Amino acid sequence: MSPRVMSPVLVGRSAELGELEDALAGAPGAVLIGGDAGLGKTRLIREFTRSVEGAAGGGRATVLTGGCLELGSDGLPFAPFTTVLRGLVRDIGIDGVAGLVPRGDTGGLARLLPEFGEPEYDAATGEERARLFEVMLTLLERLAERAPVVLVIEDAHWADRSTRDLLAFLIRNLGVAPVLIVVTYRSDELHRTHPLRPLLAGLERVERVRRTEIAPLSRADVAALVAELLGDEHRRVPPGLVERIAARSEGNPLFIEALLDDDGTLACELPESLRDLLLAGVQRLPEETQDVLRDASGRGTRIDHALLAAVTGLEDAELTRVLRPAVAANVLVVDGDGYAFRHALIREAVHDDLLPGEHTRLHRRYAEALEGDPALVPSGRLWGELSYHWKAANDSTWALVASWRAAAQARKALAHAECLTMLSRVLELWDQVPDAAERIDADHVTVLEQAASAADQAGEYDRGIKLVTAALREAEAEAADAVPEGGAGPRDPARAAVLLVLRGRMRNQMARPGFVDDLRAAVALLPPDPPTALRARALATLGNYVRLTSDIGEARKAAAESLAIARALGDPITEAEALITQFCADVDYDNEADLDEAGRTAAGSGDHQVLLRYYVIKTHFLEGAGRHEEAAAVAGRGIELAREHGVARTQGTFLSINRAEPLVSLGRWDEAVTVLNHALEQDPAVTTRTSLLVLSGWMALSRGDLATARERLITSRDIMNLKMKWLKTQDYFATLWLEANVALAEGRPDAALDAIRPVLDHVGLPDDARYAWPALVTGAAACAELGPAAAGDLRRIEERAAGLDVKGPLQRAHCLTFSAELARARGVLDLAAWEESAAAWEGLGNPYYRARALFHAAEAALACGDHEPAASMLRTAAELADGLGAAPLGERVADLLRRTRTPRGAETSAPLGLTPREYEVLRLVAEGRSNRDIAEALFISVKTASVHVSNILGKLDVASRGEAAATAHRLALFAAPAGRDPAGRAAQNGRGAASVM
């Protein structure tokens, strides 16, 4: 008897195939396919790609396939993308690939595939990594201009961190080109802390991403698969066979194939375990074949013929002869110039069956074979594989050396997480290798430094902080040993200063205390004479960070000294950084001369990173000055600069945030929503996410989507709780402002005041006035709702406002609005104040705040009996609110307009022969209002209200108010009134509507 081969027909997966076809038709997009091992994910993908590729390359799409390696977490970064690039080079050549990337520059791709030459820049910075990601996306998009592209990444449960990062970037940034990304993974491998879990959860929320789970085969599908495996559709399946196989296999196709023999019987007795089942097919092979399979299992699911020959010591012909039974039995399949286990589970079972001694000797043979001939593995993988095999062979010395070199290789490939993994292995092995420093020509502190730097680049700030602390402690101990009598300070102050700056930066990223202290300590270690670029940069960083703690004076001093040193040294980059920091220490929205100087210096430096920072600050200034159109335009130019340098969808995302804010101010809300949603899909850093959430939440609230506003507020508050002490004013005060507005919209003015109180307590923060004014306006509105009970809070709010500077037209508009709200809170509807506020907002081009001010101005006009001007203002406000989709404000405007007496010439007949005014009075009568209530609601006298009621009774031919109300209800003349309490009364307290959104 011989074990069965795979079924020639894919059984039970028509729905999944259909979903993939739909996704391709709707590309761009992504499909995430999960399922337990053996359920047929690879077979499904093979069937799908075969159908879209067609015969002789005449298919519907270009298919690019790469698989993640089991060694991925051991320092082999970007493995599937390296495979994809290598296949692309094989198909269209290096010149063909060069024709698909910007300016034909393949230097970035050289980090993944040495065939492209050397990288353009040696630095392994975050920007270079961003550029690499952009190049990969551009490559796919331009390839898709010829024909749709299907990129398949298999076995993502083995993906290294860098592969996961690049995959997430590609999926989140797919544009309009027809690119379909298909990702497969083993669901049963995703334990609770598996790093793929949060990535899948995040990607699932991205538009055009589908996630599907492959289920076990049904009883009918098991029967169909058994029939296919038996090879004769007309042969009668032995009674009870399907039931036995279905019960034992639980619908897993791999297990079904392993269980069934070609004569319609079970291939073996029912095994005690899955491992026994998978090994059963191997154990029936010749002993020499089993030996070679054990050797092959040490490499991974796939192994090249040449490498296997080197490890086994067999000649080519002999190796081919020995492996032929394994291929015939479908344990191995031929894969290009090598072999692959038909399923990873088979390889795992074979490898796990090795005895300890066999395991150690096998991996030593692999390491020795690779040392003898590095060409046996693809370029870029040598040291990562050697690290893995030497460690598995328990050879600490060579594992340490290989890991050190693998770290350098990963750093060059911009795979910072994998670099950190390899350096961590070096540190782990250090004490086991007495001459470790001589072996790698670096001391222990250097390894700690490099590991900390890799942790910083990888975003592993907690580990990075611990590594820097360990490096500083060890350096101090070395200094103490060198100077037993207790000499002060480290032996290498510059080295210690660099470490302190690094730790300070990481502490700042995590909002941990001590980040400013680290920067101060770093500056203290660097003498002012002679002036050095290192001291200038440390001072610029100190100035940038210390301003977040409200010590504006120290920030200015640090920036000034940094500027002086930079100019003395002729360092335009540090000079520009210092000028920007100096400007940010105390922004004056009436004066941009200093910022213009920073811009000229940044442009002249030739460094686009500092120029991009200037664009960020420039847009921040212009928006804060109320120059919204300019802010949006400058942000657009910054985004274009980011695009020119290949970082549009990474560093350019921050400028996209700065573009959204002026779009919101200008009332271009649909554009702003698109920008914000795209930025949020990028999973931005926690340091920038708050601004996105507040803007998005405020627009949702203004459009009546209270649920989304609450959701954004909760997330923003959670971030605040993580980093309360150091959060920027724009994040801290803005979140409190959104919380207060949500509370007002929910009818909880007391909660709105609670939200605002921290703004009253925290005085003197950077950019205080810009972000305090809107919060104080909201606080005054809450006091207006609460009336005399809020007198104490109103007094505190007024005192806080009195201490604020007013810089620039935007702050002046907020100040005018605050004055009008303050009067309203005291029971005075100040028409002139609200008209001045409306004019200020109109001058700034802000339609929403203008409409809100017009609404309150109309209230004030009606209180004075000026109905015609009130109606005119309300009609303008209604038009503005309608254009924005600001439904809550629009409803309040419409309600007030309905209660406004318009000129007689404009009146038309209402139902039942009533005038429009009588019709409005009847609506209030139907709500159970008294004449006094009606007079108050319509801004008329009680006597006039009584006359209108008498006219209505006559026209309706009824004897009482009750009969008139009954008639109105019977005829369903009025919809349920909005904004009323259960008694039917409007929320009137003489101070108007509450919300200040």
Concise overview:
The protein has 997 residues and is mainly α.
Compute the number of strand runs.
Answer: 8
Strand content: under 5%
Strand order of the largest sheet: 2-3-4-1-5
Average pLDDT, rounded to a whole number, is: 86
**How would you sum up the global shape?**
globular
Percent of residues in helices: 55-70%
Question: What characterizes the major β-sheet?
Answer: 5 strands, parallel
- Terminal residue distance: 78 Å
List low-confidence stretches.
1-5, 903-907, 975-995
Q: How many distinct helices?
A: 46
Structural class: mainly alpha
> If you compute it from the alpha carbons, what radius of gyration comes out, rounded to the nearest whole angstrom?
36 Å
Written account of the structure:
With 997 residues, the protein is mainly alpha-helical. The protein contains 46 helices and 8 strands. The chain has a 5-stranded parallel sheet with strand order 2-3-4-1-5, sandwiched between helices. The protein has a 3-stranded antiparallel sheet with strand order 6-8-7. Helix 22 (493-509) packs parallel to helix 24 and helix 30 (651-665) runs parallel beside helix 32 (686-702).
